[in-house]
Specification:
The complex is a heterodimer of chains A (260) and B (269). Chain A is built from 10 helices and no strands. Chain A is an all-alpha fold and 260 residues long. Classes of the chains: A mainly alpha (260), B alpha/beta (269).
Chain lengths: 260, 269
């Protein structure tokens, strides 16, 4: 559907109204005392807190810390996992060695490694970033491997017959052909990375949105906890939309980006 | 010219077996058995046969995409060992690079030759015009129809000016009308820029219409069963289709191919 059609605009308006309605129900149920305000503080209180924290700058410090940790871990994971996934698809020996390790690692709840990583790397940023890298690594390597190993031989043969060397084949043909799968892997890994960031911040402390939320919780500050939830929701949406945008930019050639 | 060395492709005693690799059960499938074929310099040669007769295998062996197991294949440049721009190929499914525009697709092989960018662009443009795709330089393959994609693939292959043009059922995925137009255009382009062409097809009339010589392959394991000079002359157009020779050849070759197709179906396929 075109983004300019009246039907599309009407749909978006209705969806916004539903969201506004739910926000109103939240506000009303707390104000009317249907739900104890400690369990669900009024939305207006939460938004006021958010505003105060924005004025003091505290929100931005937490958001920046969380974003920095999440993106650093995610980027390191991408730099490691994409080449490994491609190598696994192209070199039997590499596949032979890593496949069992990844088969075990992929379905494992990576967060279970937090105590070990605290033991090994302490509780500061290094430890958090390693934990985030670790959890982002598996979806990226799996998607890259699967995407690269399912490439048709025809464009590869065409490129070889046009004079491409093995190295050129990898960079100029295989990488772009696998890029939709690689991007899908990144899109799966990013929310995983965000979750891991928040959880490690909650468990290890050191500010960030997760750290601020757990601190608020310890002081029985339920407004603070809900403010954290809204911050995370906004941050998550912005980061994931950003990656969607990047995908659309990188895959302009792909039929998925062609409106019919 | 015209000496004994004036051949396009020399295929001697080539056998090829598939399967039976590591971890695979069962025996090998013999696709080609002791195949000999001499394709003349700048000849338009069609390889015709029932499906599964190994005609595409023979083409991929000439292209160097799969290694020669038994026998030898050589061109003017010597024995074939790997793919190279002297033997460029057009596949049935076009095999364009979908992330590149038409212009970038056609420029790719020229860039690999190390030509300066301006020259690459000029040669590519000329070939895009040759296949009548002018105006679509900046389009991505997914924006084009099947016929236009195949034109782009042909332009990309012709642009590197290969000595030998390999075509693997290039019009098989196109509708009947587009196929006819493409056949006429291909023959016209070939007349302007003579090359040794090996054209794989299972369409008898396509083979007769296009080729100077036709090799009919046997049912699996494939080998060259008959060779026929079409003798239709260099000009091929609408009138060729009603030419008595064309009609007779069509019937004669159809009978020969049918024999092999029947054998293939009795072979438990």
């Amino acid at each position: 559907m075109s983004t300019l059609s009246p039907a599309y605009n009407r749909d978006r308006l209705l969806q916004a109204l539903v969201l506004a309605g739910l926000a109103l129900v939240w506000e009303a149920s707390s104000r009317a005392g249907w739900v104890h305000p400690f369990l669900l503080p009024p939305l207006s209180d939460v938004l006021t807190r958010l505003l105060t924290d924005m004025q003091s700058g505290a929100v931005f410090v937490d958001l920046a810390l969380t974003l920095y940790r999440a993106l650093t871990g995610f980027a390191i994971a991408a730099v490691l996992a994409v080449p490994l996934g491609i190598l696994m698809a192209r070199r039997r020996g590499v596949q032979w060695f890593f496949d069992p390790l990844i088969s075990i690692g992929f379905p494992m709840p990576k967060i279970a490694f937090v105590p070990i990583f605290i033991l090994w790397f302490d509780i500061y940023d290094t430890s958090k970033v390693i934990m985030i890298t670790f959890s982002c690594f598996f979806p990226i390597v799996t998607a890259t491997y699967s995407g690269t190993s399912h490439i048709d031989k025809w464009p590869l043969w065409s490129a070889r017959a046009l004079g491409a060397s093995e190295g050129e084949l990898l960079r100029e043909i295989i990488l772009p052909l696998a890029s939709p799968s690689i991007l899908t892997g990144l899109q799966i890994a990013l929310p995983v990375g965000m979750i891991t960031t928040i959880v490690t911040e909650m468990l290890m402390g050191g500010s960030g949105v997760g750290g601020a939320m757990i601190a608020a919780g310890r002081f029985a500050d339920s407004v603070g906890v809900f403010a954290g939830i809204i911050e995370i929701a906004i941050l998550g949406m912005v980061v994931i939309r950003g990656l969607d945008w990047l995908r659309a930019r990188m895959l302009v050639w792909h039929p998925e980006n062609r409106a019919h | 010219m015209g000496m004994a060395t004036d051949f396009g492709i020399k295929i001697e005693g080539v056998s090829h077996a598939y399967g039976g690799g590591q971890g695979q059960l069962g025996t090998n499938t013999l696709a080609l058995k002791q195949t000999d074929l001499l394709i003349r310099h700048h000849e338009f040669h069609a390889l015709l046969g029932p499906s599964g007769c190994g005609k595409s295998t023979l083409l991929y062996l000439i292209g160097g995409f799969i290694p020669v197991q038994t026998g030898s294949i050589s061109t003017q440049k010597g024995p074939v060992t790997a793919p190279g721009p002297d033997r460029s190929i057009v596949f049935q499914n076009f095999a364009l690079f979908p992330w590149k525009t038409v212009l970038e697709n056609v420029m790719y092989g020229l860039q690999k030759k190390g030509l300066p960018e301006v020259e690459c662009r000029d040669i590519a443009q000329a070939h895009i015009k040759l296949v009548q795709l002018g105006g679509f330089e900046q389009a991505y393959p997914s924006q084009l129809s099947g016929g236009m994609q195949q034109r782009a693939a042909i332009a990309r292959t012709l642009a590197v000016d290969p000595d030998i043009l390999l075509m693997d059922e290039p019009f098989g995925a196109l509708d009947a009308q587009t196929r006819r137009v493409m056949q006429e255009e291909l023959r016209m382009i070939w007349k302007k820029r003579p090359k040794t062409v090996v054209f794989v097809t299972h369409d008898v009339h396509e083979a007769v219409f296009l080729a100077d010589r036709i090799s009919i392959m046997s049912a699996r394991p494939g080998r060259i069963e008959h060779q026929i000079d079409t003798g239709l002359g260099p000009e091929r157009d609408e009138s060729t289709l009603t030419d008595r020779r064309f009609v007779e050849l069509g019937e004669q070759i159809w009978r020969l191919v049918r024999e092999q197709a029947v054998l293939a179906s009795r072979g438990g396929l």
